[in-house]
Amino acid sequence: AANKLGQKCVVRMPKGTTQTRLQNIARENATVTIEDLNYDDCVRMAAKEAAETERGIMVQDTAWEGYEEIPTWIMQGYGTLAMEADQQLADDGCRPTHIFIQAGVGSLAGAVIGYFANRFKENPPVMVVVEAGAADCLYQSAVQGDGSRVNVTGDMLTLMAGLACGEPCSIGWNVLRDYADNFISCPDYMAAQGMRILASPVKGDPQIISGESGAAAFGCVTEIMRDPKYRDIREKLGLNENSRVLFFSTEGDTDKENYRSIVWDGAYPGHGDE
After folding, report:
1. How far, rounded to the nearest angstrom, does the alpha carbon of residue 95 sit from its chain's CA centroid?
2. Cα–Cα distances in Å, from 14 out to 44, 165, 212?
3. What confidence tens digit (pLDDT) does each residue in 122-153 have?
4. Phi, psi of 3 (to 5 degrees)
5. Full-prediction pTM beyond 0.70?
C-alpha cells in the first residue's frame, strides 16, 4: 500500500478481490481500488506510486533488493506470534513436534520458522510450509533445489486469497530455504475442509472461526491424516497420534459471504482428485 502520511491510505487490490474485503479495508479510512493485475503487479504499482508521490511510503511485508527494512520490521512483528505461542505452550509444559504454517510471499512463514529454529536449535520441530496450489512459488523454489527463488505468474486464482502471491519475499525465503523441512502445494478443497472442521469440531474441542487462508495449514493436515492416498506423506512427516501440531490461524470470517458458502453450503467439497 502506498501511504501518504497525514492523509488517507491508498490501497491497490488485485483483481479477484471480493466486495466484502474491499469494504472492510475502506472502513479503515483507506481509498481502495481494484486493479486488473495480480498481487505482485499491484505491489509494483504501489511501490512506483509511493516513490513518485510526495511523502509517499510503501508499507508491505514482501521484500526485494533495495526494499528490505520495512519488511524486516514486519517480520519481527510476526515473530511475536511465534514467541507468544511458545510461551503459552511452555506454560502448559509442552512443545510442538510439528509446525505447519501457511505462506503467501513467505514473510509470516519465515518469521515463525526462524523463531522456532532458533528456539530449539538442537532438536527443532518438523517445520512445513503450506501454500495455495495456484500460487506455490516457495514450493517451486524448493523443487528447483538450487537455493534461488522461482516466481509464479498469471492470475493465481485460489480460494486462499491471502496466499495468492507469486513472488517469494527475499528475506523470508532466505530463512525458509535453510530451515523449512518440507513445502506443500495445497489444493483449495483442503482449506475449505479445514474451515468446516474448525467451525464444527468434535465434542470437547473449541470452535474456531477461521478464514480461507487461516485454515489452509490445518485443512492440509486433516486431509493428510484422513485420506489413505496421503499415507506416504503422513509417514514421511512423522505425523501420528502422538504428534503435537502447532498452527496459526491468520484470519477469521473476514469475507462473511464466502465463509458461509463454504461452511454452510459446502462449497469446495473435500476429497477431490487434486
Report:
1. 22
2. 11, 10, 17
3. 999 999 999 999 999 999 999 999 999 999 99
4. -115, 120
5. yes
